[in-house]
């Protein structure tokens, strides 16, 4: 089994233990909590990448601050039209990846996404479920090259 950052591994295990109905309820709750992972006023970041891409319904900003030994702390700003599932994944990724090294972020495989949200939602939403993870990895790559 793939090694994930500890916090992400705990979230994967939690979601895998849930029946489908409870899984969806928890995703909706996490989507509602996504605003808690937005950048705070006056907060400083080493990289800020705010843009609207074709694969997302609105603007998404990935903000990364590096602390000792290249440990990354993410904040994500979301436009008002961002879908519920993307908001939920934002919360999961911020909780699961904050405090990880840049290398750990880059090494996280995408295979955990269907384990959290279920294969049916992955199929319905196609690649949009991977969007925030891809953006976080791009930011980590840029910072690692500095």
Order of helices and strands: HHEEEHEHHHH
* Gross morphology: globular
Q: Tell me the total number of β-strands.
A: 4
Sheet of most strands: 4 strands, antiparallel
Give the low-confidence spans. Answer: none
Roughly what percent helix? Answer: 40-55%
Q: Which structural class fits the helix and strand makeup?
A: alpha+beta
Number of contiguous helices: 7
Distance between the termini: 32 Å
Q: How would you write the strand order of the largest sheet?
A: 1-2-3-4
The averaged pLDDT comes out at: 90
Supply Rg. 14 Å
Percentage of residues in DSSP E strands = 15-25%
Features:
single chain; 146 residues; alpha+beta; 7 helices; 49% helix; globular
Question: How would the blueprint of this fold be written?
Answer:
Elements: H1 6-16, H2 20-32, E1 47-51, E2 60-67, E3 71-78, H3 84-97, E4 100-101, H4 102-107, H5 112-117, H6 119-125, H7 131-145
Antiparallel strand pairs: 1-2, 2-3, 3-4
Helix pairs in contact: 1-3, 2-3
Task: Give a short summary of the structure.
By secondary structure, the protein is α+β, with helices and mostly antiparallel strands.
What does this structure look like?
The chain has seven helices and four strands, in the order ααβββαβαααα. Helix content is 49%, strand content 16%. The protein has 146 residues and is an alpha+beta fold. It is globular, with a radius of gyration of 14 Å.
